[in-house]
Amino acid sequence: MNIVVVTEYFPSSDSLDIKGGVEVCCFNEALELSKYHKVTVLTSREGELEEFNLGDVHVICCGDEHGYVQKGSFTSRLKFMKDAVNKHEILEDVDLVVGYNFITYPVAYKLSKKLNSKVALRYHDVWVGEWTKNVGFTGLFGEILERYILKQDIDLYLAVSNFTANNLKKFVPEDRVKTIHNIVDFPQVESEKDTTPTISCVARLVEYKRVNDLIEAVSLIKDEIPNIKCKIIGTGPEESNLKELTRQLNLEENIEFLGFVEEHDDVMKVINSSQVFCLPSIVEGFGIVIIEAQSLETPFVAARIPPVVESSGDCGGLFFEPKNYEELSLQILRLLNDEDLYKKLQLEGLENKDKYTKKVIGEKLNNAYESLFS
Asked: What is the pTM of this model?
């Protein structure tokens, strides 16, 4: 098949210099699908490149230069969307168009109509009715886009989790929804566990990721483990508020903000060297980083939300009630103080990761897309 993938962001090298789970998902799946089919990626422009090749994937940049954002940037995003749709003029004999996030779903749909092709949407989460709660007033744009796309004639909604699939089925025909989990590109990193008790966290610094709960928990843990360390990777609009909370709680010596770490392997080294990985987020589509932590034998503590329970296999870590930082602190202390529990969770996590290899997920993706033509 000739497949066109539409994604707002895509790396320009295989070092995975990208910022979020959706982008990692798209990168891994485009490369895996290129083993079976011709794959072209339409993405936004972040530098001077007009187009380039990454392995067997041909990448075409659209619109004006468009740096990474989670919300806002309406003008540049609209230009990207318009230019991507207009690429139908240079694309030929396309069989399938796949969209990867809310911005690209309507682009994929419009493009498929112009190309007379099938269309599939790789769906990470359903935010209908939750947009303004999750990202504020600017979420109205997302609310409109999502409600629009769920009313269109889409050939396949490919959910990353059963949780997302069940939410989709409230709005679209069940027979057009399938679940295929994300590929996890398991890191091969070498680093020793820190001798100082260390917690790591990788998250966009936005409100719904609840990194503030982790900071509050560290304040409580410090009473028992004065030298506790916490390394936070990520940037976002909440960064200044989180740093101020850290100052207010006198945690400057305990919490380190590492900002955006460009190399994926360097992110994994931080998780690998930590005793505990923490994901306090209350909104996730799947939770790739949980599985990555499992593969590195770093047990996790996460908010008990369905997508993360599903991705983790309900093993390899401990859960806490969302937004309950006191319970979060207790679960982290359990891990740090119970050696037998720690080793048990390490072994569980290693067993769970085998469900998410490139080969396993790549074959499922290929079968799902080919089924559209059988």
From this structure: 0.75
Q: Given this model, what pLDDT does residue 19 score?
A: 58
- pLDDT above 60 (res 72): no
CATH number of the domain encompassing residue 125 = 3.40.50.2000
Tokens of 60: 């075409």
Angle at 127 between CA 102 and CA 116, to 5 degrees: 35
Tell me phi and psi for residue 314, to 5 degrees.
55, 40
Residue 193 domain flag: no
Instruction: Please tell me the distance from the alpha carbon of residue 293 to that of residue 295, in angstroms, as a whole number.
Output: 5
Query: Would you say residue 149 has pLDDT above 60?
Result: yes
Q: Is there a domain that residue 41 lies in?
A: yes
- End-to-end, the C-alpha distance of the chain in Å comes to 13
pLDDT confidence bin for 354, thresholds 50/70/90: confident
Work out the number of other CB atoms within 10 angstroms of the CB of residue 61.
24
Chain segment 233-271, per-residue pLDDT in tens:
999 999 999 999 999 999 999 999 999 998 888 999 999
DSSP structural state of residue 51: E
Give the full edge-to-edge strand order of the sheet including 96-99. 51-54, 57-65, 38-45, 2-6, 96-99, 118-123, 156-159, 177-179
**pLDDT at residue 15 above 70?**
no
Which alpha helices (H) appear in the chain, and where do they start and end?
21-33, 74-86, 105-115, 131-135, 139-149, 162-168, 211-224, 239-248, 264-273, 288-295, 306-312, 325-337, 339-352, 358-371
pLDDT of residue 213: 98
| Residues 257 and 113 grouped into a single domain | no
Residues 163 and 223 in one domain: no
SS3 210: coil
Mean pLDDT of the chain: 91
Give me the domain span that covers residue 24.
2-181+357-371
Residue 87: both structure tokens together: 């690429």
